[in-house]
Design a protein that fits this description.
The chain is mostly beta strands and 370 residues long. It has four helices and 25 strands.
């Protein structure tokens, strides 16, 4: 029953930065370069993605709820254009909650609850759509993250139990969780632009590793979707999982933070039914792996580790791993200055700064391994 209770404060952003020529040789210490970049978006956003187009770097910022726009900026901060999609939403009677950059003129949008993917141009005009709603009858709801690359669509799956009763007993919850723990977590269409579709599923049975049937699995789907591999992480696990391009498990990487305990566990269904605030309290009071990013130019992986909340602040550290997942460094971040979110560009890791007085502006500090 993961689909019922989603935690809005988890916003995980995914992108594979590919090598422009050869991967750079880097050091082993993650350091602040003291370089910052600001993006005056013009409206508040939570979601953003870095992308390359014609060898140039861009960042797209998206708001699905209020403004219903995508703002595209050059990597140095200049806004290039804003793409509205409110008219598409209204005409198609859909809501969106995930997006992918196809190129500078084309964006993919995933509908909420209805399993459809729309392509729009930079003017917000619908140019293509594909309907996967039949998979809802198999309890497969498509969800974030989503990447559309070279005609291959990869998108997360949430288990939506279509047989779940309106007035469930604790036995109904347990039976549903048992099924969900062995469910696939990745949907792949290898011929997005063609009919008939070519669908496969991957990353199955992952939650059975760290969630029992009598526990509430309340999180969404958290995968780092790269071209030749997929990294999966859960707030309930002290490791992340590396899959090859055949979606076979290659490596399990244990995350050993020297600053924070990774000790979040799912709450018991019986306890949750007595106190539904336990889900939020559980994440406030314990540490977990909150984000994964990849730097394809330097062959580095960044793992964000959240600690126990301090008031309304989010303590966190960033661990850098090399291409073999050997730990290079861990930096304890100033959580009064930074959020545990960011993206990777050619200069390094861009970490979002806290800027509460300017909701329309996103500012990032660049960190790099030296």
């Amino acid at each position: 029953m993961r689909v019922i209770f989603r935690l809005a404060f988890f916003t995980i952003l995914f992108y594979e930065a590919t090598c422009l020529s050869s991967c750079k040789i880097v050091g082993t210490q993650l350091e602040n370069t003291d370089e910052t970049v600001s993006y005056n978006i013009g409206f508040p956003v939570i979601r953003y993605k870095y992308f390359l187009n014609g060898g140039k770097e861009y960042v797209a910022f998206c708001d699905f709820v209020s403004n219903k726009k995508i703002a595209v900026h050059s990597i140095d901060g200049a806004q290039l254009f804003v793409t509205p999609f409110d008219k598409v939403m209204e005409k198609e009677n859909e809501k969106f909650y995930a997006f992918s950059i196809v190129n500078l003129d084309t964006f993919a949008l995933l509908t909420k609850y209805t399993n459809k993917v729309f392509l729009i141009n930079r003017y917000g005009e619908l140019i293509y759509k594909k309907d996967y709603s039949k998979y809802l009858l198999e309890s497969k709801e498509l969800c974030s993250p989503m990447e559309l690359d070279s005609g291959v669509l990869k998108v997360g799956i949430s288990f939506m139990d279509i047989n779940f009763p309106d007035n469930p007993t604790i036995e109904d919850y347990i039976e549903s969780e048992k099924t969900g723990n062995f469910f696939p977590n990745l949907f792949i269409d290898s011929s997005f632009y063609k009919e008939p579709e070519s669908i496969t599923f991957g990353l199955d049975s992952l939650y059975s590793r760290f969630v029992r049937a009598d526990e509430m699995n309340t999180e969404g789907n958290y995968s780092l979707l790269l071209r030749n591999r997929v990294l999966f992480k859960s707030s309930y696990s002290d490791s992340f999982y590396v899959f090859n391009n055949h979606y076979e498990l290659d490596t399990v990487v244990y995350v050993d933070s020297k600053f924070y305990d990774i000790d979040t566990r799912p709450v018991k269904i019986s306890d949750f039914l007595k106190n539904m605030n336990l889900i939020s309290e559980n994440f406030w009071e314990h540490g977990f792996i909150s984000n994964l990013l990849y730097d394809g130019r330097r062959n580095l992986y960044y793992c964000f580790v959240r600690g126990k909340m301090d008031g309304n602040m989010l303590p966190f550290s960033i661990i850098a791993y090399d291409k073999n997942f050997s730990k290079l460094d861990e930096v304890k971040m100033d959580y009064k200055a930074y959020y545990p979110y960011g993206f990777v560009g050619s200069k390094g890791l861009y970490v979002e700064k806290i800027n509460k007085n300017e909701k329309n502006i996103k500012t990032f500090t660049i960190f790099s391994c030296r």
